[in-house]
Structures are given as C-alpha cells and as structure tokens.
Amino acid sequence: MRHLIAALMFVSLAASAGAGYYTDSGKGWWWYQKEPEKKQGKANEPKKAKRVPALSDYSYDEIWNMHPDDFEKFAEGLKRKAVQNPSEENVKDYYEVQEIARKKALAFTNVAQYVWQKYPELTTAKDYPIATPGNLSRVNQIQEEKNRKLRDNREEFALVYFYKTDCGYCQQQQPIIDWFTNSSGWQVKRINIDESPGLAGKFGIEVTPSIILIQKGNQNSFPVSSGLITAEEIEDKTYRAVRLLKGEITPEEFSLYDFQKGGGFDVRKRPSNTGREPR
Q1: Which residues have C-beta within 8 Å of that of residue 96, sequence separation ≥ 6?
Q2: Strand-pair category, 221-226 with 210-215
Q3: Cβ-contact 96, 55 below 8 angstroms
Q4: How far apart are CA 149 and CA 31, in angstroms?
Q5: Whether residues 106 and 167 fall in one domain
Q6: Would 187 be classed as within a structural domain?
Q7: Which residue from 46, 50, 194, 228 lies 20 to 30 Å from 57 (Cα-Cα)?
Q8: Using CA atoms, how far apart are residues 149 and 277, in angstroms rounded to an integer?
Q9: Same structural domain for residues 209 and 89?
C-alpha cells in the first residue's frame, strides 16, 4: 500500500513538473529572454554632471569638415554652455563657431553660383527672367496663351455660375461675370440655387458665389471658384481647368504653361546625367 501511495505521488509530481515545462517552454535564455537588468548605484546617488563641449577640443579643420548633424549638435552645445555660464570665453567660443557656420554657408552659396553658371539647365533663370524686358516678355506669353486657350475652347466648354438673390458677395461678383462674358465670348449659365436646389446639390454647391466649368456633350466638370474672385482669377482658373479636362496636363503640372514645357518648371523634365538609367 505504501508503495502504491508513493507511486501515485511520484506520478502527480511528474505531471505537475511536465505541465510547468510545457507552459514555460517558450521562455528562458534559449529563447533570447534575458533577466531584467538590475539598476546600479544607490537611489540617492547624485547624477554626474554632463560634460560640456569646448572649442579647444577640435582644430579649425576638424570643425570645418564636421558632418552637418555633428556640427549642429556641437554649436547647440556651445550655445547652451554660454547661456548657462555667460562668461567672456564661453560667449566668444559660441560666436566663433557661428562665424565658421557663416563662412561654410558662404562657401556653399559661392559654389552654387558657380554650378548654376556652369550648368544653366539646373536653374530657372531662363524660364523666369529677373530683368524687366525678360519679365515683361514672360507675362505677355502667359496672357497670350490663356487668351488663345479660352478662345479656342469657348464652344466646347461653358461656365455655370451659382448665386443667391440675397447674397451680398454675389452682387459684387455679377459685374465681374458680365465683364468676363463680354471680353472672352464665353457662355455663362446663371443659376439661382434657391430656385434650383437639386442642380446645386448635383455639383455639391454649398457656397455662393460659385463657378463650375462643364464640358458640353458629357458629364465632365471641374470647380473654378468658391467665393468671390476677380476677373483675372476667372481667366486663370478656367484656363487651367480646361487644360486638365482635355488631358493636356496632370495635377502635377497644374501651374505649367505650354511655353514652359521642357524647362525648369516642367516636373517631368529630368536634368541630364541625373541618376542611373532605368533597366
């Protein structure tokens, strides 16, 4: 009987041990589980003071050739040191490293001007001249292109102008719409949203005055404005909307004019010898 009881106790202990083994089999050193590190030192032990940077730690060439991230950290450390202890030496060290930063920036600017002059395709100077004659020529090209595009597409497109009778902004927008219609020959359909709420809802009109560009013969449309705008804005926004609906530009090229294609404002124009050729 005693042997039977001992055997049963052994089996019970073995089963308990086996259960623990399988339960904890995914834990321990072999599963890259480390014991939590014990904190060193006493709770009331004073913290060690941080070492502050010093200009004398580096030569001029070492500072000049520092990685920008390291230089920024070094300069910030000198500034904090000078603020904490504004002695003559600390403040002088800070401004000396700032002088190096200024000269480094000047060096970059000088090389940039050299590169732009040697490789003019990397600049927008030819596309956006600063000189008055060149700037006037650019403005004339823009206006001529917009006028031509609006003239050539006024039979294919039209504007829908949404307004309300008691809308003060609409009263100011109306003469601007009249001027645009007379000067461009475009058809502008006027819709009072109080009388045609369904049509306003179709275009998602929530603000008056609003202008929508539609393409005749299909369902294509694009918003031109939401709120009071000038005649120049109507011309410009309608011009861009027409080009977008006709597939002449993508949203990435929304501000691109035809005469600027292939230049510095063309996002699809790649500079020569840039990167590896696609396989």
Answers
A1: 55
A2: antiparallel
A3: yes
A4: 71
A5: no
A6: yes
A7: 46
A8: 36
A9: no
Number of independent structural domains in the chain: 2
Taking only the tens of pLDDT, the chain with its 279 residues reads: 444 444 444 434 444 444 454 455 555 544 555 566 655 555 566 666 667 788 999 999 999 999 999 999 999 999 999 999 999 999 999 999 999 999 999 999 999 999 999 998 888 888 889 899 999 999 999 999 999 999 999 999 999 999 999 999 999 999 999 999 999 999 999 999 999 999 889 999 989 999 999 999 888 999 999 999 999 999 999 999 999 999 999 999 999 999 999 888 888 887 766 656 555
Tell whether pTM > 0.90. no
Alpha carbon 62 to chain centroid, angstroms: 35
Place of tokens 């089996």: 11
User: Does residue 181 sit in the same domain as residue 90?
Assistant: no
CA dihedral (262, 264, 265, 266) in degrees, to 10, reads: 30
C-beta of residue 178 within 8 angstroms of C-beta of residue 207 = no
CA distance 124 to 263: 8
Q: Which two structure tokens, joined as six digits, stand for 169?
A: 């902004």
Q: Which domain holds residue 177?
A: 132-260
What is the spatial distance between Cα 201 and Cα 193, in angstroms, rounded to a whole number? 9
